[in-house]
User: Fold these one by one.
Assistant:
Number 1:
Amino acid sequence: MANTIENLLTRNLLEVFGERAAVKRRFAIAALWAEDGVFVDPYGRYVGYAALNDAVSQLHAKFPGYVFAPIGAPQAFYDVGRLAWGHGPVGEPPKVTGLDVVTVRDSALCFYRYAGHLRYRHKNSQI
């Protein structure tokens, strides 16, 4: 499978952020990310494979039982792409939605930033 921006975005969401097993996730990170890749979210800035893997492990610890799912198709323009996603318990509507923005260099993710505002969905919300 070619490392198009659209493919990188989808695989990153499912195989990196969606993978609970750290060892398996580490292989996906090495396949999709540049060694000096940077991930930025509201909690920090993480550089390199190990830092990214640790950040995702912390995310899984904070939200046990939650899964990621793409919302719509990824979009790409030159070396930049974006993908909207939902995050929540299996079989339920997402409790959190967000948008990821990436820059790609040499067919690998080199900069990944969560962009936009997390929207939390409460059971009494009409959102």
Number 2:
Amino acid sequence: MARNFVACRKKVFDRGRPPVAFLNELVDWGVSAPAEIFARNNRTDIYSVVSDELGPWANDLERRAAMLEVLRVLAGFESSWKWKEGVDTTNPNSNTACTEEAGILQCSGDSMNFDGSLKQLLRTVSGRTDCISFQRTTKSNHKFALEYCARLLRFTVAHHGPVRDHHIHPELRRDAMAELLGFLQGEMDVAGREGTLAFTADIGTRARASGSRASGRIKAKSEAKTKAKTKAKSKRKTKAGGTAKRKTRRTSRKARR
């Protein structure tokens, strides 16, 4: 689907403008992402720390748009929107497979320790849970990179320096969030309608199949009844014929006497 990005293409700090290709992938993910990622909770998370810039939110769809805006800006700060970005060479602590940052949002493997669901996400996508697999997956699987970071931001705001130190906050834009919300509303509505149509078509198919089976059963019953009647009628004729023959024989015997 062609999208016309205006506010989302505005410059982010000194990182430049988000590429259209990245923005399209961001919205694509936002349309299909699980609702649980954006639901309310009782933690101090990303929504808690950007509420002044992007809140308040009337519903989870607006919260979904706010998350996309955070990821739009954060990806600029962390990697200038480079999917395959490697380790942060300025961080002296990035010296093991599990502490090295990787990918567009610069998450590291040790961040899976914040919650078991993060490791489970990697296991579901890659079949493994080691830090090397995390690095490779987050660089190559764009949907995983976005979803992992979004989920991580619901558990902690300390993992990313630009979030923790409030560097992203002046760059967050309400007009960009509104633009993202517009895409989400239109496309999720279409997706919902298509899903309903598919479900309705499936119901129709199942109803026709059920009707065919029912029709078949009725036809079979009717044929069985017809056969039973024919058989009974045949038996009656056979019995009647036998009775008539016996009568004829008795009559003949009487006549001979």
Number 3:
Amino acid sequence: MTTVRVLVADDHPVIRDGVRTRLERDGRAVVVAEAADTPTACHLAEQTRPDVALVDLRLASGGHGVDVIRYLHEHLPTVRILALSQAESAELAAHLIGALRQETRSLTAREREVLDCLAKGYDNREIADDLGITVRTVNRHLENIREKLGHRRRSALIRNHDV
């Protein structure tokens, strides 16, 4: 049985303790790091390379949970992230969607067009034909998109496009 390595980022020690106790109870998960603020969470993530990060969106000091999520997305894209919050669901959804859309805005207009075609199910030749560019240029755009979004697979790029 594989043990899941978890980072817990929450500014409340009682919450961190409760999460650790609950996760480690049956032995399927181990908390490899705990942090109360953004800089510590990012530093510990680099050191411990967790499989999963549980991140409170409202860290009391040193930044916000969204900053931790953005850092993990950019520097450790294989880490699965679960956002925790006591905020109302509508407020939380708006905050997360806004933060995630900022990531997509870093794409150029042409990269967004390539991603749109990809989401339509086009292969590279069809994208090239549709946009009036070469397949080699499509490949270059796809590499840039993969680098910016932190995903290698086409299916992950398409899922990110739908956010």
